[in-house]
Amino acid sequence: MTAPETRGIQITNFRKLYGKTEAVKEVSLSVERGELFGLIGPDGAGKTTLMRAVCTLLVPDGGTVLVQGRDAARDIAAVRARLGYMPQRFSLYQDLTVEQNLRFFADLFQVRQKEREGRLEELYRFSRLGPFKKRRAGALSGGMRQKLALSCALVHTPETLVLDEPTTGVDPVSRHEFWEILRAIQKEGTTILVSTAYLDEADRCDRVALMHEGRIVAVGTPEEIKAGFRHVLYRLAGRDARELRRFFSGLPQVHSTQLFGDAVHVVFAKKPGQSDWEEWRHALEGKLEHWSPERPSVEDVFLELIGSGR
Amino acid sequence: MHETSVTTRELTRRFGRFVAVDRVSIEVGSGEIFGFLGANGAGKTTLIRVLCGLLKPTTGEATVAGYDVYTQSERIKQNIGYMSQRFSLYEDLTVAENIEFYGGIYGLARTKLRQKEKEILKNFGLHRHADSLTAGLPFGFKQRLALGCAMLHEPPILFLDEPTSGVDPRARREFWDTIHETAGRGTTVLVTTHFMEEAEYCNRVLIMHVGRIIALDTPDALKSRFEKRTMQEVFLELVGKEIGETRTRGQHGEQGEKP
Amino acid sequence: MERRAGEDDRLYRNAGRKENVRTSRSRILSIAHKEFFHILRDFRTLIIVFLMPVVQLIMFGYALNLEIQRVDAAVIDFSRSTASRDLVERFEGSRFFRPFYFEGGVSQVGDLFKSRAARVALIIPSDFERQLLHASPVSLQVLIDASDSNAATLIRNYCNQVLVDYNASRGAQLPVPFDVRTAVLFNPNLKSSYFFVPGVIAMILVMISALLTSIAIAREKETGTMEQMLVSPVLPHEIILGKVLPYIALAFADAAVILFVGLLVFRVPFVGSAVLLVLLTTLYIITALSLGLMISTRVRTQQVAMMLALTVTLLPTILLSGLVFPIASMPAALQYVTYLVPARYYLLIVRGILLKGSLLGQLAAPALSLVAMSLVLLVVSVRRFSMNLER
User: Fold this and answer.
1) Does the structure's ipTM exceed the value 0.90?
2) DSSP letter at C21?
């Protein structure tokens, strides 16, 4: 671990209230320089609030936020100059072309003339938007729009990049491509803080924090997170998935069940023995045909952590 | 899956020169959960809209609940429930008022409506919110209410267009529980989604690209055919390859889904 | 709201058997019921709808007092006869004019207007008296400063009134080229509020009926709820009727409020038949609603609906109906355009009923014009009202 002031982002005991509701409750988090860090959780978990504080847009009700060693609540101008932010509802100018949008943001961040052309070329290459320079932003597909928004946030070569749910509503292929671009940006040494409501995107990050109701419920690499699953997950298949599910959800040692098409995922409190399986197969009169342990997904871990009991 | 509830043969829909749905032939059985996957602009929404009678097919055949989409759209409408991509309830009406409105336009009798209203409020965990304005509900609740309204008249076929985008994981699982329950009672569910985990919840999935079917099978069969662990990987393999090909052919549309 | 359970049951059981689906009163009422909620919940719009006309009445009635008094009138009298002096005295005697003899020539009248020394010039020809005595057509030149066209119109009306009085006193016939007798006869004091109460009613009705309905339909398209209705067995005319009914009620309530304020505060006379007024007001509301429907079939968003409704309904109602600017004083081309403005006919109707006590027979022409307009608009918009997303 490095010293707090040399970290990419250091959040210490951050709190934020909206009226009486506590949107974020005493959260501490550190992101190393050059790390791709994911903030993962459902809507209303407090991800946006935390990100806005990093972007100097909110004043904390408690605690501090340091961005590349600078206080985001005090040293606002210096933090902003070195930060790229892509808000959840990034509003591009729909009636301007891709190029006009980029140039506008370059003007806004006072990117120097001699660096500008090179930077734009780089961004076109990254985003593969080069062939669409002259297209109006309003006529772009969802995935391309997000890439343009990202490019606009990157136009001044920021040290820190903050992205609030950039892949929401974007199709899986464009999402995949978007994450590859983020990886490429990270290689340039940029610190990236990205939030997502898609739990499967956790696997794309170096480290993630799972957020729920204003708290961080787990932090670590995706593998560490998955290793934290305390229960045992099995995938069962057979002739009548619904009947299987009904049967298992009635057992005391079963924590939860979920239908997966023609299969059922069953979460047991502890690993069942061979005799248990034989007994269940017998009870189900041959309807249970296969069972095998299944690796839990981040979603399974998350649901366990927030106590999704049935 | 004995009876078929949705059949299409070479179904095609064009917008001008743009072919949104290109010779699609499918057969969906009663009580089946049938998933539509595809990138934006693949034609999923257009296909669903044609089947719901919101758009006319250009060529090809299609029947829904045994009725012809060309000539019997009024009868189709009485046999389907539809939940569109956009949240389509009235935000300035309360939960109960929304239910009553949709009950009214589907011609539910008063007693039947009362009973269904109670059922929806209970089953979807909305009873505490019956008199709250819909605008103030958490998104997951709104989606459940929209599903409830789409199922109010107990349609044998349910079309869901990206019903879970923006819904948190727990609510999503509950939502899918409801879908499974409904299908268990014999309702056919046709659903589009961007969540590849959800593809695994379906009995069969159809993967579309620029209007054409590129794969149609059960999730397990697809995974073993392409030797992948998840549907996400299957999808990226299949659609990623297609996009690569169309790009090199220089025809990739990149336009968004047509209205 | 009362739903008819029996009817619903029948319909539901019949569903799916026959392709022709019957009109269902309960579906229409469901839509209307829901629309009422929208209206009641949108408090701001509701306040605007009821407060705006009252504010307008007060503005027009008091603040914007269009009655011009003591207008400086330059008299160039080439006749210098008893008759001409008599005429000038008539002008002097009215409370509208302050005549003075101007010794300069006709060519200098423009300068008089520019310096605002006068706003009207009366040029009496040298053979004025002789013409009068021979009862031949008298040519009297009246020049009016029309830089404020509104005031100019009023000045012209006042001139005519004076001339008519003069005529009457002489028992002779002086041709009066303007048809102002109705106004002068039935609104002898030329009170502008008498005009504006009917005008504000016409305006608010068109606003509610055309503007609010077209926005309400566009909103359903914008939020996607229309899509939801289109996949249900609702028929197009059921959607239209259901959406429109509450606005008819709202329009009537509002018209009643305006009329009430007009009668009570501004003491506008109501000499005609109330039944006839309600009947013809309904007709006007239907015309305006048809216009709103027509707009809504052509737009997808509320913003466009509003812009379009403002340009094709509200603005013409204010500017081209004779509400503010008299039609007779408009350029000929614009006068033809006014035939397309429903408010033009409605103003004739309301003014006729309120001020003159006109009967249906006397109002047949404007009433039939409204009927014709509604029919054309309704047919076009119901046809265009798309039951799918093709348009």
Assistant:
1) no
2) P
